[in-house]
Amino acid sequence: MSFDRSMKIAPSILSADFSNIGQEIRAIESEGCDWVHVDVMDGHFVPNMTFGPPVIASFRPHVKTFMDVHLMISPVDQYIEAYAEAGADMIVAHVEASTHIHRTMQAIRAQGVKCGVALNPGTPASAVAELLDIVDMVLIMTVNPGFGGQKFIHSCVEKTREVRQMIGDREVHIQIDGGVTPETVPLVAAAGADVFVAGSAVFKGGSVENPAPYGKNIRAIRDAANAVL
Ligand code: DX5
Ligand code: ZN
């Protein structure tokens, strides 16, 4: 797959109805999302718990687009193989969650999947400076990880601009995760991000019986970002 910096909307299925997950995934894809973002939490690195590898393997057949798996877990290295085998197209690990983050990125690559590094709001852009030649994506958290529906942290906009400058000509995506709405997305789109995760802002107002609001919500985010590009 060749590199493509065009805008991508990646709904976080953290805000989906888990009892209907196959239908939820089909609904967001048919309503126009680009990627499907899966949030993995361990109750240790972040104060919440979500999906293990067998659960993600059960999502996989439903995802026709691209599944990025955001690991908010520590330790992380010993679980990479299991998440790759579960069917992740991309695995993202936190710089704060690994003692040897470069080794973690190598371990993800060795599984033959795309790799990304994530930064918490309290971590500076410089923390990824030595990784830009080996990653496919930098994920900039715009909330403290652990929960959907939190408020966007504005200081992360300047950091996005910095990371974009550091990336230069490299084929590396910038993903924004947390508090993305039609109001906040223009800030980070203008700062150079290209992949936008949104949970509550995509799923609000819709359901598998009534998926049209998903499409409307995705278009609202896309249009607001396009307006500043
Ligand atoms: C937070 C997760 C996010 C979150 C986004 O820890 O990584 O992906 O679910 O949810 P919203 O868009 O509701 O902030
Ligand atoms: Zn996430």
Written description of the protein model:
The chain has 229 residues and is of the alpha/beta class. It has one domain: Aldolase class I (TIM Barrel). The relative contact order is 0.16. 31% of the residues lie in helices and 18% in strands. The model has no long low-confidence stretch (mean pLDDT 98). Bound molecules: D-xylitol-5-phosphate (DX5) and zinc ion.
What are the SSEs and their pairings?
Elements lengths: L7 E4 L9 H10 L5 E6 L11 H7 L7 E6 L7 H6 L4 E5 L6 H10 L3 E6 L17 E5 L14 H12 L5 E5 L7 H6 L4 E4 L1 H4 L8 H15 L3
Parallel strand pairs: 1-8, 2-3, 3-4, 4-5, 5-6, 6-7, 7-8
D-xylitol-5-phosphate (DX5) binds next to strand 2, strand 8 and helix 7.
Which properties best describe this structure?
eight-stranded parallel beta sheet, single chain, binds zinc ion, alpha/beta, 18% strand, binds D-xylitol-5-phosphate, 229 residues
Mean pLDDT: 98
State the CATH superfamily name. Answer: Aldolase class I
| Class by alpha and beta content | alpha/beta
Q: What is the number of strand segments?
A: 8
CATH class category label: Alpha Beta
Unreliable sequence segments: none
Strand content: 15-25%
Summarize the structure.
The protein is built from eight helices and eight strands. It is α/β, with parallel strands linked by helices and about 230 residues long.
